[in-house]
Q: What sequence folds into this?
């Protein structure tokens, strides 16, 4: 039981139960720093009780300054689900969030994702904000979502299970207990304890490094790329390709999906939205060029501006030589 020393006096704090999961959820939504480790990048609340379709309601959605989505599941020990269902929910939330584009998720939460990320980074620096926004989208697609299970008290079985998930999967799952105490003068004191840090601690340096296979593809492509069409940027999971005469919002893109590398064509700004039908016309042509690739037109990409994905990557230079002259004229 905690003891507080104040000047020459001391007093004992009395433990108090949370009245409901809603109470703990509200406290964490208002004070997300209770879930932070000192080495974490700053993160902030996006929304509470986010509907993820068949996956149910996500208690709390946060985002950090590096563009990483964070899903928070709140449970009280007295809830029978604390051990039985929380593990299934962890996988469910990560898989559900990975189905959303960053723009779709932003629409789902009423534009709050855009606002909150803008507050965390320098919105006045448009290029910096767009870089973080794109990284957030890349993290969603790759399933790089941190999950925090927040409880009032954690049974040993739950601690063991969460540790097992982190040690035997690529998921980053954190277990945090929040204990509530009442002082003699009726002040509420909340004490967080990080019980399981999550996979992010062990893989943080590696996760920031580009995958060797992806780096090799970029290097080989740049060695044969036509002048003005080399891959740009330093993103760990993506590279953009567009000549100086194009707005960056209309670009080709290499994307590292983890198990495969895709080549994509994106429209990511209002100034190029009108090119949607033109871009969609490429889909049949690309399918003929690469019959073994999974080629799809995504009408919902980037707030319904559109995009084409060819996965796995193959013969980019051949693809580019057939398509670059046409979009170049359109731009």
A:
């Amino acid at each position: 039981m905690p003891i507080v020393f104040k000047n020459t006096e001391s007093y004992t704090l009395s433990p108090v139960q949370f009245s409901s999961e809603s109470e703990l959820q509200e406290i964490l939504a208002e004070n997300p720093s209770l879930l932070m480790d000192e080495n974490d990048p700053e993160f902030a609340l996006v929304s509470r009780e986010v509907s993820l379709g068949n996956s149910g309601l996500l208690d709390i959605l946060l985002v950090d300054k590096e563009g990483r989505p964070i899903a928070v599941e709140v449970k009280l020990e007295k809830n029978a689900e604390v051990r039985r269902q929380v593990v299934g929910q962890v996988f469910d939330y990560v898989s559900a969030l990975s189905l959303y584009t960053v723009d779709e998720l932003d629409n789902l939460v009423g534009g709050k994702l855009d606002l909150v990320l803008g507050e965390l980074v320098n919105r006045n620096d448009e290029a910096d904000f767009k870089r973080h926004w794109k990284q957030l989208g890349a993290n969603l697609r790759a399933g790089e979502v941190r999950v925090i299970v927040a409880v009032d008290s954690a049974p040993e079985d739950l601690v063991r299970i969460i540790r097992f998930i982190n040690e035997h999967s690529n998921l980053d799952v954190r277990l945090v207990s929040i204990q509530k105490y009442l002082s003699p003068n009726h002040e509420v004191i909340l004490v967080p304890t990080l019980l399981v840090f999550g996979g992010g601690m062990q893989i943080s340096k590696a996760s920031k490094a580009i995958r060797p296979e992806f780096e090799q593809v970029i290097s080989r492509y740049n060695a044969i790329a036509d002048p003005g069409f080399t891959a740009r940027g330093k993103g760990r999971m993506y590279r953009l390709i567009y000549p100086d005469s194009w707005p960056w919002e209309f670009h080709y893109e290499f994307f590292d999906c983890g198990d495969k590398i895709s080549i994509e064509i994106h429209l990511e700004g209002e100034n190029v939205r009108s090119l949607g039908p033109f871009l969609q016309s490429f889909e049949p042509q690309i399918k003929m060029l690469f019959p073994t690739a999974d080629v799809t037109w995504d009408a919902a990409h980037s707030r319904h501006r559109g995009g084409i994905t060819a996965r796995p990557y193959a013969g980019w230079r051949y693809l580019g030589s057939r398509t670059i002259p046409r979009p170049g004229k359109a731009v």
User: Anything to note?
Assistant: The longest helix spans residues 126-141. Residues 200-207 have pLDDT under 50 and may be disordered.
